Amino acid sequence: MDNTFSCYKIDDRSLIPFIKREIHNLALQLGFTPHRAAETDIIIAELTSNLIKYAKEGELLYRAHHSEGQNQIEIYCIDQGVGIDNVVKIMNDGYSSSNTLGQGLGAIKRLSNDFQIYSMKNWGTIQYIKIFDKAEIPIPALINGFNYATIRVNYPGERICGDGYHIKYLKDGFQIFVGDGLGHGANANEAVQQAIKAFKQTRQTEPAAILRDIHDEVKKSRGLVATIATVNYKTESWNICGIGNINTRIYRGLENKTYTPYNGIIGHNIPRTLNSTIVPYEKHQIIVMHSDGLRTRWNLNDLVSIIKQNSGVIAAALYKDNIRGTDDATVFVGKII
User: Fold this and answer.
1) Residues 6-132, CATH architecture
2) In which residue ranges of the chain is pLDDT below 70?
3) Which end of the chain is more exposed for a tag (fewer CB within 10 A), N or C?
């Protein structure tokens, strides 16, 4: 199942019925019961009507996929509006700032399997929703305390994405791949999918060696840039190596460090010498990896309490403020809890 998000710019109420119908049909295709699909309709109606009412315009991102052992629809609702002063207060049923019943956000929370909201005054609001095919299913437990989320969107007008990512769990840790096929469209997608296939199959554990294996397997493709970040639980360390312009940054509290990749194109020309950067793997770290579809001049410390939010909200905040709109874009965020 494709894990790319579909995007809608919402600036008029006339779009709402179309979006509701599209996501409703998607839910039925995914195996939702008619009742659960109708509950999904309520969530979409509340999100989009609030967007028009309070922010005038915004963006809705959604995808259907199988993850965490469940069929699910994942939604981001993002706006550049005036923001919310007191998120806790508006979550209470009966509170309204517009003389309505005041049950919108409460309904979204009740009908969703997971609902997160983040807002700042004069910055805007992010709402993050997961809807499983059964309302009573709890959010699965974290794997070894690692929570991650990824937003991946196509170049505007394209039907296929040239970026890709994959996370592979091993006995003693895990490996993260984030790649960007050169250009966009079908040829870029072919390159990154070949790279992901090689990443899945390789038995190498060191990022530099993994990149060399991928390089050998994609030589007939357009080529790509990519970064591998691996974690070893025994040594409690990150091992990071990249070729090309995938931006990688690790935060721990207010401190952060960016890891510079090597110049080159995987599948065409890579350096003879590749060395990984090794850093401690510690609780409360946040790793961010993204393609050049996002600007690189950002700082999580500019967003109040954002590091306390889950990975999906952090990814959406980076997307909101830094999307270029001139290429495919992927942002991967992982938190160690």
Assistant:
1) 2-Layer Sandwich (3.30)
2) 1-2, 68, 90-103, 141
3) N
Instruction: Kindly report the three-state secondary structure assignment for every residue of the chain.
Output: CCCCEEEEEECCCCHHHHHHHHHHHHHHHHCCCHHHHHHHHHHHHHHHHHHHHHHCCEEEEEEEEEECCEEEEEEEEEECCCCCCCHHHHCCCCCCCCCCCCCHHHHHHHHCCEEEEEEECCCEEEEEEEEECCCCCCCCCCECCEEEEEEEECCCCCCCCCEEEEEEEECCEEEEEEEEECCCCHHHHHHHHHHHHHHHHCCCCCHHHHHHHHHHHCCCCCCEEEEEEEEECCCCEEEEEEECCCEEEEEECCEEEEECCECCEECCECCCCCCCEEEECCCCEEEEEECCCECCCCCHHHCCCHHHCCHHHHHHHHHHHHECCCCCEEEEEEEEC
The reported pLDDT for the residue numbered 92 is: 64
Instruction: Record the tokens describing residue 306, joined without a space.
Output: 């954002």
Q: What integer pLDDT is reported at residue 86 of this predicted model? A: 72
pTM higher than 0.85: yes
From 96, 16, 22, 83, select the one nearest 52 (Cα to Cα).
16
Of residues 73, 13, 63, 1, the one with CA closest to residue 37 = 73
- C-alpha to C-alpha distance for 314 and 265, rounded to whole angstroms: 29
The burial of 29, by beta-carbon neighbours within 10 Å (0-12 exposed, 13-18 middle, 19 or more buried), is given as exposed
**Beta-carbon contacts of residue 6 (< 8 Å; ≥ 6 apart):** 61, 62, 63
Q: Which CATH architecture has domain 146-336?
A: 4-Layer Sandwich (3.60)
Q: What was the pLDDT predicted at 2? A: 58
**φ, ψ at 137 (rounded to 5°):** -70, 125
Per-residue pLDDT of 226-237, as tens digits, reads 999 999 999 999
The Cα 291–Cα 309 span in angstroms is 22
- Looking at residue 103, what is its pLDDT? 52
Domain ranges of the chain: 6-132, 146-336
